[in-house]
Design goal:
By secondary structure, this protein is mainly β. About 0% of the residues lie in helices and about 65% in strands. The strands form two sheets. Strands 2, 4, 5, 6, 9, 10 and 11 form a seven-stranded mixed sheet that branches. Strands 1-3-8-7 form a four-stranded antiparallel sheet, with no helix packed on it. The termini are far apart. About 30% of the residues are buried.
Length: about 120
């Protein structure tokens, strides 16, 4: 099985910084795109940032210039550096990985999710 383990969430004051980390482990065969989503109470889950296997990045408009996504392919990790945090950034942040896993006698294209880590930004 594939497991995504996240860390780095917490409580910070507005203007502060946090760095989220996510490690993919287990039986995953290949990792392609990786990213971070977030979901605030009563809101739909939304893309925050993504990074391809080649290192190309994309960001939601509401975080561009403040957040930076990066990855370490050897460690199978993806990071989200969050600076200049705002109260509206408060949400559960989820690691997302697109990859391939061998099961049922073949390679399967799958999407994996972390358990989520709470980020709370106080005003």
């Amino acid at each position: 099985q594939v497991q995504l383990v996240e860390s780095g969430g917490g409580l910070v004051q507005a203007g502060g910084s946090l760095r989220l980390s996510c490690t993919a482990s287990g039986t995953i065969f290949r990792i392609n795109d990786m990213g971070w989503y977030r979901q605030a109470p009563g809101k739909q889950r939304e893309l925050v940032a993504g990074i391809t296997s080649g290192g190309s990045t994309n960001y939601a408009d509401f975080v561009k210039g403040r957040f930076t996504i990066s990855r370490d392919n050897a460690r199978r990790m993806v990071y989200l550096q969050m600076n200049s945090l705002k109260p509206e950034d408060t949400a559960v942040y989820y690691c997302n990985v697109h990859g391939r896993e061998f099961y049922s006698g073949r390679l399967n294209d799958d999407v994996y999710w972390g358990q989520g880590t709470q980020v709370t930004v106080s005003s």
